[in-house]
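Sequence in, structure out.
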Amino acid sequence: MCGVSEREDVVGRVLDWYGLNARDLPWRRPDATPWGILVSEVMLQQTPVARVLGPWREWLGRWPTPASLAAEPPGAAVQAWGRLGYPRRALRLHQAAVAIAERHDGEVPTAHDELRALPGVGEYTAAAVASFAFGARHVVIDTNVRRVLARVVAGVADQQPSAASRRLAESCLPDDPATAARWAVASMELGALVCTARSPRCDACPLDDLCAWRAAGSPALAEPVRRPQSWRGTDRQCRGALLRAVRESPAPVAREDLLATWPDADQAARCLDTLFADGLLHGPDPVRL
């Protein structure tokens, strides 16, 4: 756990580092709206910043408010999602926009529990929006933050989401809400740019001399990290290909023609059924968004 003096030292150094090294991202600028921040947090789930920048700008240009998105059919959100991946996030954003329009007079709610009640908004996203959009004091902990705290304080290479990792994050959280909100984004940025999973740049880290992991000789994880499943040939790739074919077609696509776009007909039929079940495609014939 972080003691008071250790917390102040760690937080102060990271905030100073962030002031000099933070990336200039549009959802971090003073003119970013709570809606823009919510959209960014959903888009950034399992997706790198570089892939999100263009779609985020296009999305906010088309739907600058929740009400403007809520007024469109869900298929428009899926269409605009393009190749960001995990397209159910587009449907969840549309559902959240409808809920904001209906329950909150079109304004993104400020309270954590009201954010958490929006469709598709989990604990992390609710805490992130409450902190980044409204300057509230919440534990905002993603994989980057967990890794930074695991190394600096616990002396291990990484940690999984758990009650213990959350208690550690809570012990390092500054008391002042504005400082806590800035700490949340700064510690996340440190993990993304310096304290990375595979090739940490310890010589560039403001916490190098405080890091328990470095002091212990940078021990590897006790258990080897599992290699990610190959994407090629998976149902996820098949679903993406079918969805893309419909999205890029100027008109609804005949079911037979759509299934013919994938080499395994049985897999294509099975994946198409899951896209129907998820509400990403509609049919059964012809198939449309």
